C-alpha cells in the first residue's frame, strides 16, 4: 500500500483500550443496578446527572481559560466532513452543529462519570484504609501525593496555569520553559 493509504495502527489500539475499559465499567455498573437492596442505583443516576451538569458547565467556558482544543478540533472535523460530503456529491452545511456536538459530548462525559462513581468511591475507601495502616509520615505523604496526582493532571488543562507558570515560568531574568 502507498503510505498515504495506510492507517495509523495506534488509533486502533487506543480505541480497543477505550472500548474494553468502557465495557468493564459498564458491566460493573450493570452489576450495581441488578442489586435490589442497595442504594447503588440511585447513587449512579445521581452522579450521572451531576456529571452531566458539570460537563455542560465546563463546555460553556471559553478556550481562553480551559485548553481542551474543542474549537479547533470541531472546526477541523467539520471542514473535513464537508469536503468528504462534497466529494461524494452531497450538499451539506456540516455534520452537526457545535451545540449538538457539545451536548453529545456532555452526555458521554456523564455516562463515564456515572460509570466511574463506584470505582472512585472504592479508591477513596482504599486510600483511607491505607492511611490508617501507615504509621510513618513519609508513607502517609506519599499516599496523599498518589491520591492527589490525578487532580494535578487535571489542573494542567487550565490555560493560565499551563501557559503562564509552566511554559514561561518567572525564573529571574530568564524565561525557560519547564
Automatic annotation (TrEMBL):
<dbReference type="InterPro" id="IPR019395">
    <property type="entry name" value="Transmembrane_161A/B"/>
</dbReference>
<comment type="similarity">
    <text>Belongs to the TMEM161 family.</text>
</comment>
<feature type="transmembrane region" description="Helical">
    <location>
        <begin position="103"/>
        <end position="121"/>
    </location>
</feature>
<keyword id="KW-1133">Transmembrane helix</keyword>
<feature type="transmembrane region" description="Helical">
    <location>
        <begin position="12"/>
        <end position="33"/>
    </location>
</feature>
<protein>
    <recommendedName>
        <fullName>Transmembrane protein 161B</fullName>
    </recommendedName>
</protein>
<keyword id="KW-0472">Membrane</keyword>
<feature type="transmembrane region" description="Helical">
    <location>
        <begin position="45"/>
        <end position="66"/>
    </location>
</feature>
<keyword id="KW-0812">Transmembrane</keyword>
<feature type="transmembrane region" description="Helical">
    <location>
        <begin position="141"/>
        <end position="158"/>
    </location>
</feature>
<dbReference type="Pfam" id="PF10268">
    <property type="entry name" value="Tmemb_161AB"/>
</dbReference>
<keyword id="KW-0325">Glycoprotein</keyword>
